[in-house]
Amino acid sequence: MLTVTIEKKWYAQAKMPTLENLQLSIADGEFVALVGPSGCGKSTLLNILSGLDKQAQFQLQWQGQTLDTRQRLPLKMGFMFQDSRLMPWLTVLDNLLLVLNHSAHSRELALHYLQAVGLEAQAHQFPAQLSGGMQRRVALARAFVVQPRLLLMDEPFISVDAPTAERLRHVLLSLWLTSRPMVLFVTHDLREALSLADRVLFLSMNPARVVLEQPIVLPHPRPTGSTELLQLYQQLLTTHPDLLSGIRQEERHTDVI
Ligand SMILES: Nc1ncnc2c1ncn2[C@@H]1O[C@H](COP(=O)(O)OP(=O)(O)OP(=O)(O)O)[C@@H](O)[C@H]1O
Description:
This is ABC-type nitrate/sulfonate/bicarbonate transport system, ATPase component. By secondary structure, the protein is α/β, with parallel strands linked by helices.
């Protein structure tokens, strides 16, 4: 179990803290989705966990032990961001080898993950030769090839069309079910959160706190258009209309785009 307690994160020019007294836990092998309105601090939270942001006051506990937050989290971590962030001058295979530091068996491992995302045949192509959806699959392979214990995902399927996003979620789930890292998955899209996660955490606006925690017990696969998932979605909107209104507006905005 990983527990993070953020006492305070206050950006220099801000009128109030972005995060305050925010606590969340992720069990070993658990997939947790984090939803909340734009600007509430989701990326800030991932930056703190990843070690990019060293200015926050926070505490980490891993397996009951308090960790020294001046050091990086002693867990192998993987990341996936809103854009695929592939190196354009490297082939698909070399993009994966880069994060493996060309260690022993790294080529074999990289090819294994490219096969897992259905891109073995594209190993020697460059990112620009691939579609946007394929580039996201390379980014997924790169996130998993390091065999992370904790995977931080910041809206990784934003701005791809709905069928491609559905396929990417399917690939993500098959990778996750094989190796079961802890996942913290940020999204604006409540249906996406419900389709992937074991548990969904809802954040309030600044200072952001976890205001609702929803376990999801539906079996996988859970397509975003399935009756069970839509029922759960509607039920949440009916039970927590105020809380979810900010998120729903953003979903509508995304639909329009
Ligand atoms: N480097 C920074 N300096 C000052 N303020 C910042 C900085 N980064 C983020 N902020 C502010 O902190 C708040 C939270 O930003 P953050 O990007 O974490 O939100 P978010 O929930 O991830 O938003 P979105 O869903 O739109 O990506 C926002 O008000 C933002 O303007």
